[in-house]
Amino acid sequence: MSVFSGWRAAFRMARRDAMRAKGRSALVVAMIALPVLGVSAADVTYRSALPDRAEKLTARMGAADAVYSDPGMGGGPVEQMPDGATWGGQALTGVESSGPVDVPSAFPKGSRHLTKRSVPAVVTTRHGIARTEIVEFRTADPLARGQIELVDGAFPDGKDELVATEPFMDSSGLRIGSRVTVRGPGTTYTLTGTVELPDDLDKKALYADPGAVIAPWKTASDRDDTVLPPQPGGTEWLVKAAGGAGVGWPDVLEANEKGVLVLSREVVLDPPPNSDIPMAARMSGSSGSSVGTSAAVVTVVALTVLEIVLLAGPAFAVGARRSRRQLGLLGTCGGDRSHIRAVVLAGGAVLGGVGAVLGVVAGLALTVLFRPLIEGWTGNRFGELSVPPGELLAIAALGLVTGVLAALAPAVVAGRQSVLESLTGRRGTRRSSRVLPSLGAAAIACGVAIAVHGGVNGDTPMVAGGSVLAELGVLACIPVLVGLLGRLGRRLPLAPRMALRDASRNRGRTAPAVAAVMAAVAGTVAIATYTSSTMAEQEYDYTPSLTQGTAALVADGPEQVTQLPLARAAAERHLSLSGGRADYGRVWAGSDCSVYYEEENGCGTLELVKPTGKGHTCPLSGAGAKALARKLSATEHKNLMSSPPCVDEFMLMTTFGTDSSKIVVGDAKLLTTYVKLDDPAAAEALAAGTPVLLNSAYAKNGEVTLKAVHTYNDRDTENRVPHPGAARSTTDRLKVHVAPDAYADTPGIRLIVPQRTAERLGLHTQDYGSVYPLAHRPTEAEDQATASAIELAGGGAYLMSGNRLGNGTDIVLLILALFAGLVTLGAAAITTGLAKADAEADLTTLGAVGAPPSVRRTLSGFQCLVVALTGVLLGTAAGLVPAVALRLIDLRDAMESMREQPMDSAYTPIVLPWETIGLLALVVPVLAGLLAAAFSGSQTMQARRAG
Predict the structure, then answer these.
(1) What is the pLDDT of residue 116?
(2) What's the rounded Cα separation, in Å, for the pair 787 and 140?
(3) How remote is the C-alpha of 125 from its chain's centroid?
(4) Beta partners for 942?
(5) How do residues 39-95 score in pLDDT, each as one tens digit?
(6) CA 58, CA 75: separation in Å to the nearest integer?
(7) pTM recorded for the entire structure
(8) Smallest Cα–Cα separation from 72: which of 38, 106, 103?
(9) How many DSSP H helices and E strands does the chain contain?
(10) Could you tell me how far CA 90 lies from the centroid of its own chain?
(11) Taking a C-beta distance cutoff of 8 angstroms, is the pair 686, 576 a contact?
């Protein structure tokens, strides 16, 4: 038999065996096809979503040949690179010139152009009013195609029409045909259509024809002094050369001589040599290394191959055992071990090839099907659907090779069996190797030590290498750990005891599945732990502008405080409140004047004088701070920065109209509503005329010192002089009630002074705003409605609802948990299916001796549960190694930064993602067991006695 005829026979036998065992074959094909599907879909999506240079230029300039703009350099000659970059590598921005530049004079002769200019505006919506951007741009012109596209309706045609992007339509509640009024000039427009920017689908903006918004606005401001003139952004000119000649490099250089920057399609796609670029000699740069990207790609591919091998390998092993009689007959007919190996390897090639082809085809189909959804996630439209044939063939070849690799170990084992063992069906007994687990334990210890050492020394590659080594060590120990499972079920009921013993006896199929689950869970836990830890660090460093669950209504200025009652009534009609409001006022010394624009000898700003000495001065802000920082641990630094002497050094933000001294006039309602201080003693102190101090570092013996200073601008700290006005400039030994230290970091307030106490001290006060407890954070519609109601009531105030951190991290953790959960369910299901196929004779025996049918279902459920739970627990432990090591690197960097800048936070926590771990360790294994039990048949076919 020749080599080729032998392989033909092997492939024919493999194909027939695959058709006979359709369930097992479908299982292997699915496991190979799924990763191939994911990689091919990701490749096509990445190639399609990532625009090339031509597509980027089309999104930037539409169908024009070039974008001309004024760099704002006063009209002198400029220099640029072919891609439009100028000094310092800055891209074209369209910033207004500080001097007159005649940009149209730089256009090529015979060309035509479009102008594009934007202006911020406040417009009416269905809910109220909203701030947005209005762009004057002739969107109906063919030159605009590619930069802006019509989704529905029609482009504007006239001075009283607008179009809006879909995100603006959604947030404003408007639709085509709605009327929109631009606040200020009071001009009303009709929405004629919906548009989108292919490279920025999330943009909220309105578009009008040139001259439709800015010119009427300027005219209205000239007629009425109360109408503020618009503040337009930069102007751009989209230029189309005559006769399709394009804008070449000579045209760009000629425009540069006139002080104009040009981004040309022709020049970017076909740049001139460096010898023709005047600026090239002064532009230094180097191409970034792709080593890191290549390493990441190789790692992902290697992990994908490992996952497939771990999951599909046991299926081939079971298939080889199920076909051992056929393989034995092959040996009796003169076939040697190489022929037996060829049959098993051919099975891997057949199933791998089918899985690879199905995976690539399904990947392309899913990309086309979910294209609109993907474009919405990425925020930009695809250009043309990119189908790289070479890359897809490589991905399919990877699936084929992986199938062969998965069958390699079973092929070797099958080739070693004697003909007698194959024909009789005896498996034989082999003792487990003690070398592999010993090496695995050593690898775990060395890997953990290397990862920790890399973390302490800031060596990221060492962390990665140590983590991989530790995970490989766990993989090596899994067979021994699986073998120990059988000893755990001695006192358990029948089904779980059999499941544990079955997993222990059949390590060849149990250990790879556990390893696959462990690999997926380890990566998920590592990323989730690191992400949760960095999020906790950000939350610690985050400085809120208001206390949680509150909003503040603030007067626009001292002259607008008379409009506060109407503004309050308007806001309260639209906010969802959980209690009554608390009013507050500002306080100053001297004659009645503005805090922000003070006349000489006019008024004085109040300051709290912080005493010196221990307990009052922050040790990290004076001499010896760096030396002290070098001695502090991250926890000690955190505690010190949270103490009253240092909290103001760390949190300098002022809020809702309070000045840098953070002194306000208020009563007990301000304590409960905003400060969240439920202290009867503090409320009684305010009622009795005693101020409440929130930061104890400013008090000495229960008293504070108030000082009045004069300045032309209360933010001008260098030119402050003692206030010479008639009011008392200094009040020593003012008795105060000191709040607990936990309230020292209250945003915007340091001292609350009762109204009668301020009058007794000769100070001036003025109502300046209110704070409200919110039932929930205002929605976008509620914000618009509240702003509109305040404007209709006369304006003069604005609403602050606070800032907050985003919740994108929760979504990332959920996606990671779902990914790991799917892999866990898949691996557990595969192992359960293989166990069912492999142990059919045992199940038949159970039925023959009188076991009820429910035992079959229960056994399948517990077999699935054992694999899932074991893999999740091992993966959780393995995933903590790189996460902790990477956080050690962050801690090292934070400590170094703290020693250079003592006020920088060195807080670097390690936070376990208990929700993710709980989902993986409890919900997923139980779900896997229930699904396995539900889909496992309880009836057993009675088999004839063999032989």
Answers:
(1) 94
(2) 33
(3) 30
(4) none
(5) 788 778 777 777 778 888 888 899 999 999 988 766 678 888 888 877 543 433 344
(6) 28
(7) 0.69
(8) 103
(9) 30, 22
(10) 26
(11) no
**Count of Cβ atoms closer than 10 Å to residue 870 Cβ:** 24
Domain edges within the chain: 112-239, 490-542+808-947, 543-614+656-800
> For residues 743 and 728, what is the distance between their CA atoms, to the nearest angstrom?
29
Q: Beta 751-753 vs 663-665: how paired, if at all?
A: parallel
Q: CA 340 to CA 330: how far, in whole Å?
A: 7
Q: Give me the mean pLDDT over the 242-264 stretch.
A: 90
Using CB atoms within 10 A of its CB, is residue 567 exposed (0-12), middle (13-18) or buried (19+)? Answer: buried
Distance CA(86)–CA(338), nearest Å, equals 67
Asked whether the predicted pLDDT for residue 534 surpasses 80, the reply is: yes
- Rounded-to-integer distance, Cα 49 and Cα 201, Å: 13
Q: Where are the beta strands (DSSP E) in 107-247?
A: 112-124, 129-137, 149-153, 161-165, 179-182, 187-196, 206-208, 235-240
- Structure tokens that stand for 382 in this block: 């695809």
Query: Minimal CA–CA distance to 928: which of 857, 835, 861?
Result: 861
Measured distance CA(189)–CA(747) in Å, rounded: 42
Sequence-distant (6+) residues with CB within 8 A of 555 are 561, 563, 564, 657, 767, 768, 769, 796, 797
Q: How far apart are CA 179 and CA 751, in angstroms?
A: 48
Q: How far apart are CA 347 and CA 45, in angstroms?
A: 32
Tokens standing for residue 587: 């306080």
Beta carbons of 312 and 28 less than 8 angstroms apart: yes
Alpha helices in 213-336 (DSSP H): 214-223, 249-257, 265-269, 291-322, 324-332
pLDDT tens-place string over residues 596-611: 333 434 456 778 888 8
CA distance 779 to 123: 18
Q: Is 27 exposed, middle or buried (0-12, 13-18, 19+ CB in 10 A)?
A: buried
- How confident is the model over 114-128, as pLDDT tens digits? 999 999 999 999 988
Query: From its phi and psi, is residue 210 left (phi > 0), alpha (psi between -120 and 50) or beta?
Result: beta
Q: In this structure, what are the phi and psi dihedrals at residue 608, rounded to the nearest 5 degrees?
A: -90, 125
Residue in the block written with tokens 């010192």: 705
Give yes or no for residue 941 having a pLDDT over 60: no
Burial category of 133 from C-beta neighbours within 10 Å (exposed 0-12, middle 13-18, buried 19 and up) = middle
Non-local (6+) Cβ contacts of 361 within 8 A are none
Q: What is the pLDDT of residues 380-415, one digit of tens each?
A: 777 677 777 887 888 788 778 777 776 666 666 655
C-alpha triplet 176, 178, 183: angle, nearest 5°: 130
User: Within 542-605, where are the H helices?
Assistant: 564-574
Q: What percent of the chain has pLDDT over 70?
A: 76
